[in-house]
Amino acid sequence: MGAAPSARATRNDPARAWSRYRENLARHLIGISRDLESTVMRSLGEDGGFTGLRPSFAPILSLVWKEGRAPTVLAAELAVSSQACGQLIDQCERAGYLARKPNPDDGRSKLVTLTARGEALVTEGVRLILEREAEYARLVGAAAYRRFIASLATLYTGLGIPTHSDAELTARAGRSIGVLPLIAVRVQRDLMEATIARGHDGLKMSHAQVLPHIGVDGVRIHELAKLHDVTRQAISATARDLESLGYVSREPDPRDRRGVVLRLTPRGARLIRDSLGALDALVHSFREVLGKRRLEHLEAVAGELHRAIVPAEGPGDAILAASGRERSAEIDRLAARLRRQLGSRDAAKLAAQLVSEADGKAS
């Protein structure tokens, strides 16, 4: 696998820069983490009877398992404001999973800890994580998945991500994908801080719902709402925030007079380029921890797994956007993934059905 083009190489090529911004190791790891969290949360809520859950609960619950943390510490580790962290703690507390207790080391502050219900939630969550990663291993192959997990464990410790005092939890983290949500939080925090340092104050985690999906031709608000399974009002609020910062502009939708298309402004385009510089710095830190060959393997498996489980930009979209050799390579990847998912016999049946339908249309 060749090295990805640097931010400098893409500075004068908007299409190439956008491609790197959309498809990179950080985005793949974050996407896999979100799939893991949403799958586990859905199972906990629908089948486990744990009500009031939100995907945003997962990182904070992981951080306080067996070890209380002060709200200010949690805010720093989650890369959010103290106010946003306080609201998240309040939501978890109202749902019955967290509690604030006196800090024995500082009588003026509180520690955030799991309640008995929270401990039961996390224990069941671990079981579901192990169940989900059996599916991940099937998608990319057992041997490749074991190497992928080993690299995540090395990153978990090598990047200095806060560990737990509980020895069992730390050992279990090194054997499963359960460390990925904490790695994803660190990745998002580091990328945001590095991008802010390049002159982009005011960025928030919520902006990631919009920015990666705008593209060269813009994006429609209703498409983003459908993609994230949220209301148009929620996406519109984030879009207005980005508009006030000068990163996006709103234009009437030429296909729907009632709709709006979001487009990047020149400042938004510079944000994308500067984000690539932050991405290069992040990948360099990964390379220092893993070495070149292990990093390349991590990138390859993360990309393959992301394409297999994240439907937002499905294989059909990727194939339509590609051409020539790129399209052929994408079709090959899709075919390999379908063979793994369906098995050789059912994959052959699907191929025969597609040929039959194509012949029917041609005639």
Q: CA-to-CA gap between the ends?
A: 42 Å
Overall 3D form? globular
CATH topology of the domain at 7-16 and 198-274: Arc Repressor Mutant, subunit A
Which parts are unreliable, with pLDDT below 50 for 5 consecutive residues or more? 1-7, 164-171, 312-329
Could you explain the architecture of this structure?
With 363 residues, this protein is mainly α. It has a domain at 7-16 and 198-274: Winged helix-like DNA-binding domain superfamily/Winged helix DNA-binding domain (Arc Repressor Mutant, subunit A). Helix content is 66%, strand content 9%. The chain is built from 17 helices and 5 strands. It has helices spanning 7-10, 14-22, 25-46, 57-64, 71-78, 82-94, 116-140, 142-158, 167-173, 180-196, 221-228, 232-244, 266-290, 292-309, 315-321, 324-342, 344-362, and strands at residues 98-103, 106-114, 219-220, 248-253, 256-264. A 3-stranded antiparallel sheet has the order 3-5-4. The chain has a two-stranded antiparallel sheet with strand order 1-2. A hairpin with a 2-residue loop joins strand 4 (248-253) and strand 5. Helix 3 (25-46) crosses helix 10 (180-196) and helix 3 packs across helix 14 (292-309). The longest helix is centred in the middle third of the chain and has 25 residues, at 116-140. It is globular, with a radius of gyration of 22 Å. Mean pLDDT is 78; it is low at 1-7, 164-171 and 312-329.
